[in-house]
Amino acid sequence: MTTTTTTRTLITGANKGLGFETARRLAAAGHTVYLGSRDAERGRRAAERLGVRTVAVDVTDDASVAAAVKTIEADGGLDVLVNNAGIEIWAPDGEPLGPTETTDEVLRSVFETNVFGTVRVTRAFLPLLRRSASPVVVNVSSSLGSLTESTTPGTPEHDYPGVAYPASKAAVNMITVKYAKAFPGMRINAVNPGYTATDLNQHRGMQPVEEGAEIIVRMARLGPDGPTGGYFDAAVGTLPW
């Protein structure tokens, strides 16, 4: 069990965008926040702006993740993990890569961060999370990962032409379900921030990060009686898989 009076929270990919806003909001709520960033200097600058701690963590690199675990363990442990780091790969014209343009290499690159990175980080931090009195994992997914929405004509998810990013988020959803079943003492959920203006989508999103971070923050603050193994959205509640 973590022996601190505050909730210790790691957010990956948090030097900008949704991760940064989530860090800001959770710090304001009293969490001890570790702002995770692949680039140590960018992470340091972002953390200074918020008055939080920083840890260099590249979710695609085993050694980097192991070093982050040692740093946070030495500092007291971990209660909440927010797997936020994610990428999308765009065509030269700035459009999503459709079925004919998506190569195995593109798929592998997107999965390396969005899927394998989520597994790598979660698995590495499990020993620390299991010592917490109220462990929480939030996997930042997307409504594009919903098979129901993607097969329902007239929805934005149905009309989205890209392959790699939706496939990666569908995989994240399944990982969420499997981990939640395996660790019933933890609150492990997937969330959809909505179409938020960030670097990930070239700032095409229709809402600001303040709105997108709402569901991430809400699920990061769950107590031991909160839901687990679910897929949530701030506006509609539970999303269909």
Automatic annotation (TrEMBL):
Organism of derivation: Streptomyces carminius
PANTHER family membership: (+)-NEOMENTHOL DEHYDROGENASE, SHORT-CHAIN DEHYDROGENASE_REDUCTASE
GO molecular function annotations of the record: oxidoreductase activity
Listed name of the protein: Short-chain dehydrogenase
Assigned protein family: Belongs to the short-chain dehydrogenases/reductases (SDR) family.
Listed InterPro entries: NAD(P)-bd_dom_sf (IPR036291), SDR_fam (IPR002347)
Swiss-Prot/TrEMBL keywords: NADP, Oxidoreductase
